[in-house]
Design brief:
Elements lengths: L1 H12 L5 H13 L3 H14 L4 H13 L3 H18 L2 H19 L11
Length: about 120
């Protein structure tokens, strides 16, 4: 996976920037277990394209995995709205699952380091 990360990072360092590139880099980092490093790229993908429901979904999942329930819930709420408006019902359903997990983390008093979310 690090080859993909390096390739995407080289593209970014070379001056290319797009929602898809940021999502791809964030996804590669998250898949590689580098969750903290993935978050800013996913947030930037959403700054570039707020309608990118896959980026909302991956950011929500990543924030849940990082045990940032407040940020995860905020991301889920916004992402569910976007996905529903686009008709991307599967992404909306998955984010509802992440929202449920985030609420459980909140109830258990899980840590929420920083605001996160886009």
């Amino acid at each position: 996976m690090s080859d993909m990360i390096e390739r995407f990072q080289n593209m970014l360092d070379g001056g290319q920037d797009s929602a898809m590139l940021r999502f791809s880099l964030g996804n590669a980092l998250a898949t590689d277990g580098q969750l903290e490093a993935a978050v800013p790229h996913l947030e930037r993908a959403l700054e570039l394209d707020g309608g990118y429901s896959a980026a909302w979904k991956l950011l929500a999942k990543t924030l849940v995995e990082l045990e940032r329930p407040d940020a995860a819930l905020s991301t889920c709420e916004r992402g569910i709205r976007v996905a529903t408006e686009k008709g991307d019902l599967q992404a909306a359903k998955e984010m509802e699952v992440y929202a449920k997990r985030a609420r459980k983390q909140q109830a258990a008093g899980g840590p929420d380091q920083g605001s996160g979310g886009a």
